[in-house]
Amino acid sequence: MATATGHDSRRSFQRVNEIIETHGRDPVHLISILQEVQNEYRYLPQEILNYIATAMNISPSRVFGVATFYENFSLEPKGKYVIRICDGTACHVKNSTGLLNMLTRKLGLKEGQRTTGDLLFTLETVSCLGACGLAPVMVINEEVHGKVTPEKAEQIIDEIIKKERSQND
Amino acid sequence: MKTLKINGREVAFSDEKNLLEVIRKAGIQLPTFCYHSELSTYGACRMCLVEDKKGNLIAACCTPPREGMEIKTHTLRLLKQRKMTLELLLAAHDRECTTCYKNSDCKLRKLAHDMGIEEIRFGRKEKRLPVDDSSPAIIRNPNKCILCGDCVRMCEEVQGIGVIGFAYRGARATVTPAFNKKLSEVDCVDCGQCSSVCPTGAIVVKPHIEKVWQALNDDSKVVIAQIAPAVRVAFGEAFGLKAGESTEYLIVSALKAMGFDKVFDTCLAADLTVMEEVREFMERLDRGENLPLFTSCCPAWVKFVEFNYPSFLDNLSTCRSPQQMFGSFIKNYYAGEVGLSRDNVFVVSIMPCTAKKAEAAREEFAVDGNPDVDAVLTTQELIRMVREAGIVFEELKEESFDMPFGFATGGGIIFGATGGVTEAVVRMLDGGHKRFKEVRGNEGLKEAAVLKDGREIKVAVVHGLKNARELLEMIKQGKAKYDLVEVMACPGGCVGGAGQPVPADAGIREKRAKGLYILDNRMQLGRADENPMVRMLYEKWLGSPGSEVSHKYLHTHYRSRRRIEGTDIKFGGQQGKVNVKICIGTSCYLKGSYDIFKAVDRKIKERNLEDKVSLEATFCLENCTSSPAVEVNGNIVENADAERIERLIDQLL
Ligand code: SF4
Ligand code: SF4
Ligand code: FES
């Protein structure tokens, strides 16, 4: 996987340069550039943000401001699987909190921690995903799971872990 | 003439840029937090709301005045609204007013009082953010920030740097340096201008008052003060005098009353600076080297070059600033003359400036850990100490400076205003007492030419670092050519320094500058070389300008600085036989360091050198004078290109 300091980092760094090249250095493109860079790294590493500021000739504080303003950007590394639990009213009523507690325990996340140490999972809550009919809703990357009980969720997670293990062997 | 109605009264207006200015002209001070006439309009604090005829609430700061408008400024609705806004701000604010440094100047506290806020109905913000006191010049306390953005716009629009910015949103919104770093880890130049516009105690100047009281109460110390030119024309503002009225003899008297042993004048050190700088300038002109010469009396400007324009470091005059020249001749010469060791002398400089605090702390200016200047008080701190000492300003009797270093010429005095250094230098080149009006005044960039021995010398004067940046870009691109460039970081020069009383808008700065020119007119001696005490220093100690002794004690050197700490990019690979670090800081980036990166990366891949060669991208190898810079196994390769680095790698393998 790509982190700023990890394995494929040189390739990713080149990708960053290509992204800047394609959009051009006008600060109006900053958001699009950040989006694509985030796709590359799955988050926005600080040193890359600083590099973008240099390349675009704007202050790092401004890039930091934009990167922290939008919820979609993350400055922390995210896991390969991003689990999002809807905490909108409908889901809340259908015990999304229980689901969340179970997952936190299952993934061994401490207070304030959102991503597992092995960078496999990130657990987040979102406000209403607009699928209230399916409450409670859990989304893993792009895949939507409706009417999820804690048992069902646990099953899904176990399957992912199994799949990852077998791939690594 | 166009008119509009304010509270039913007809008011004329012409080219005021917004309603707020018209209202102020009509004698009504609408409260504002986010409006500064010299910054862009932000319109976020909602304090300046007024009500129009139709009952709409509009922000006066972002509404242009229109013929026939009818507005009210204090309807019941507005009064209620403003109170509410203020209460909300106060709820989120750390309200430790009694112990707040900004207390007497705080706009928030003052407005809360003026508007009769008696209770705050909203809950307090729980979370406390860490206070950043890492900077030698300023302290940031985000818990007192009301998010008006004045500091952000000041740093970006006037200083052209953008050290601090808004981050996060909603309840978590803050103003912070990039990546929540500390000020000491980023490219802040200590100018303090952010603190002078901050309406609250969220950014304040780092005080040295305690250190000074300690020294004054220490019998083993001889405490010597120096007073910078700009201080004398602003100090009185705190005691009801007009901006520009000179108060140097009252300051001397106040300092003596507090127990200072000697009070000298920094203007004399300014004369000394002129002597050294003119000599240096003539040498460079003769050799055609390192031109234009950049003045070096402003430490914020010096740091700005170190951070952002390392390729111009050789253009900076090597002269220390007047503050540091003063500290140096007191500790390295005077102390010995009067039979003291440098440890027993405590030098306090009284400055209009916050960057001088950082300058005094530079390690080049200390001998075995003992600094040439021990403490720097801003004009505001001096005012505070005078009050603390219970000195009644009105009762002060004028007292003159001590000798031998209390004697200055007009050339040294005008150092405090933009253009002053240039004018003092021109007087030396010219040999007379020329009043060089072309370089006076508030214009962002002033240009002029003088003739010296049949040669035309082109000078430029800028103030505000944004203006300096623009000028440097022009010079870089070959669009402008000068021999001498004067830069002062603060708007208006030192008279507008961040250590001066607030407010310090263009009008006030102009009055202070005028005060200095009046003093200059009063002086019999107008040129540095006429100063008998400066002559004495050369005769007894230094020899001549530019001598070896001068170089040792009055000159200095500079270094490039990283703009931001902790942002290097490591690209895996074990530290191998060959370790390559490529600088991607601004200078090197612009000169194509990324191409070198690509080439080395390709080589590593094509030849499978992963375990032998490690690659890293770093923000500044601090060698930007000859960028692009690449470090190979600890050695810096200057003016690198891809081929050279590849060859080097081959050799090492
Ligand atoms: S002190 Fe000057 S450079 Fe530093 S943050 Fe404030 S305005 Fe910017
Ligand atoms: S630090 Fe001061 S000037 Fe800056 S946004 Fe906060 S209150 Fe305004
Ligand atoms: S002064 Fe107008 S909104 Fe702040």
Distance between the termini of chain B: 82 Å
Name the helix and strand elements of chain A from N-terminus to C-terminus, one letter apiece.
HHHHEHHEEEH
The CATH class label of the largest domain in chain A is Alpha Beta
DSSP strand count of chain A: 4
Low-confidence stretches of chain B: none
% residues in beta strands of chain B: 15-25%
| Biggest protein-protein contact in the assembly | A-B, 29 and 35 residues
CATH topology of the largest domain in chain B: Rossmann fold
Gyration radius of chain A (Cα, Å) is: 18 Å
Roughly how many Å apart are the termini of chain A? Answer: 17 Å
The mean pLDDT of chain B is 93
Number of domains of chain A: 2
Helix and strand content put the structural class of chain A at alpha+beta
Which structural class is indicated by helix and strand composition of chain B? Answer: alpha/beta
Quickly describe the structure.
Chain A has 169 residues and is an alpha+beta fold. In chain A, 50% of the residues lie in helices and 11% in strands. The longest helix of chain B has 22 residues.
Q: What do these coordinates show?
A:
- The complex is a heterodimer of chains A (169) and B (653).
- With 169 residues, chain A is α+β, with helices and mostly antiparallel strands.
- Chain A folds into two domains: 9-69, Arc Repressor Mutant, subunit A (Orthogonal Bundle), CATH 1.10.10; 81-168, Glutaredoxin (3-Layer(aba) Sandwich).
- Chain A contains seven helices and four strands.
- A four-stranded mixed sheet of chain A has the order 2-1-3-4, covered by helices on one side.
- The model of chain A has no long low-confidence stretch (mean pLDDT 87).
- Chain B has 22 helices and 24 strands.
- The complex binds iron/sulfur cluster (2 copies) and FE2/S2 (inorganic) cluster.
